[in-house]
Amino acid sequence: MEKTAMKTCQSCGMPMAKDEDFGTESDGSFSKEYCTYCYQKGEFTEPEITIDMMAEKGGAIMSQMYDIPPEKAVEFASEQLSCLKRWAGREIKMCESCGMPLVNDEDFGTEAGGSKSSRYCIHCYMDGAFTEPDLTMDEAADKYAPMMAEHLGMPVEKAKAMVNQYLSSLPRWQD
Ligand SMILES: [Zn+2]
Ligand SMILES: [Zn+2]
């Protein structure tokens, strides 16, 4: 079976692993895009909610979990949310190695023939190969955590926990 990215709710960003995490369509089938909290019977549970309101909620949780100053957490939540289909108007792919959103053409890595990779970013993947083929998930977390800590004003060990959690949802790091 092809390794695929864990589905995240395209409204709130929650990872959806089990059937009961998924919302439902009007015919009772599972939604492919939205979680059970956001989407029921083919409709958003909170149709009036804005991305800012959503970022406030998500930011408050992240702030508590990972010791991020509240305003930084809200800003970060807002950046994450803006890549989701409900708010961006289209589904934006994430690099399956580092999680960077692949928004513009130049964000995508390249295959051996020079065509664009559909899965990885330019920093992780060039000419059909990983730029750091021997990198382990733990090393990747060590590499990204200080940047994340600096960006969000949080302790490095909390950043590492957050990055680890995030990377483990990406196909490159799944067994
Ligand atoms: Zn959701
Ligand atoms: Zn990448």
Structural class computed from helices and strand pairing: alpha+beta
Strand order of the largest sheet: 1-2
Poorly predicted tracts of residues: none
**SSE string:** EEEEEEHHHEEEEHH
User: Which percent range fits the helix content?
Assistant: 25-40%
Helix count, per DSSP? 5
Tally of strands: 10
Largest sheet report: 2 strands, antiparallel
Distance between the termini: 11 Å
Radius of gyration: 17 Å
Which small compounds were modeled alongside the protein? zinc ion
Q: State which percent range the strand residues make up.
A: 15-25%
Provide a descriptive summary of the structure in words.
It is built from 5 helices and 10 strands. α1 packs across α2. It is α+β, with helices and mostly antiparallel strands. Helix content is 34%, strand content 17%. Among the domains are: 48 residues, no CATH class; 43 residues, no CATH class. The strands form 5 sheets. It has a two-stranded antiparallel ribbon with strand order 1-2. A two-stranded antiparallel ribbon has the order 3-4. The radius of gyration is 17 Å and the shape is globular. The protein binds zinc ion (ZN) (2 copies). The site of one zinc ion (ZN) has 8 residues, from β8.
